[in-house]
Amino acid sequence: MERIKNPERLSGHNLVNYLIDNPNATGKFKWHTLRSCMWRNLLIKCPEYAKYGTLDDFQKITHCDALKIVKTHGKLMRFFPQDKFSDYDWLGMILAQPDILPFSPKEKFSNYVWRVLLQTHPTIADHCPLEKLSCGDWSEV
After folding, report:
1. How far apart are CA 17 and CA 10, in angstroms?
2. CA gap 30, 12 in Å, rounded
3. Contact criterion met (CB below 8 Å) for 61 and 85
4. Crossing angle between the packed helical segments 36-45 and 63-72, to the nearest 10 degrees
5. Which are the contacts of 17, defined by CB distance < 8 A and separation ≥ 6?
6. Spatial distance between the Cα atoms of 50 and 34, rounded to a whole number of angstroms
7. pTM of the predicted model as reported, rounded to 2 decimal places
8. pLDDT in tens, the chain (141 residues)
């Protein structure tokens, strides 16, 4: 691989590729040049770079890219506003990363979401508002 003389001058895809190849790189990089797909590619491979993103950077990450990031690295969920995701988004993210359940807006989940979560992860019953489920829900669980 060719050594880059001044990586702080890189932007966009070139910066992402450099950072993925050099996960311990530090410097004053042009973070503002990264678009949604670039942040997605970078954070999926090197989640430690999330700390360099600003609120504006995370707001420009699309819904679809945010889902992919969180499904891969649940701990990065904290960088995205909870209202960015629907019940079904949360369901998919929790199925992929069960550790994020305690940080989700559980009180807003539909019966369907709780039913699927309880069917796949019965150990989460402590988090479920059991009174919310109907007899039909319980029969499916």
Report:
1. 10
2. 8
3. no
4. 0
5. none
6. 12
7. 0.85
8. 457 788 999 999 999 999 999 999 989 999 999 999 999 999 999 999 999 999 999 999 999 999 999 999 999 999 998 888 999 999 999 999 999 998 899 888 998 999 999 889 888 878 887 777 776 766 676
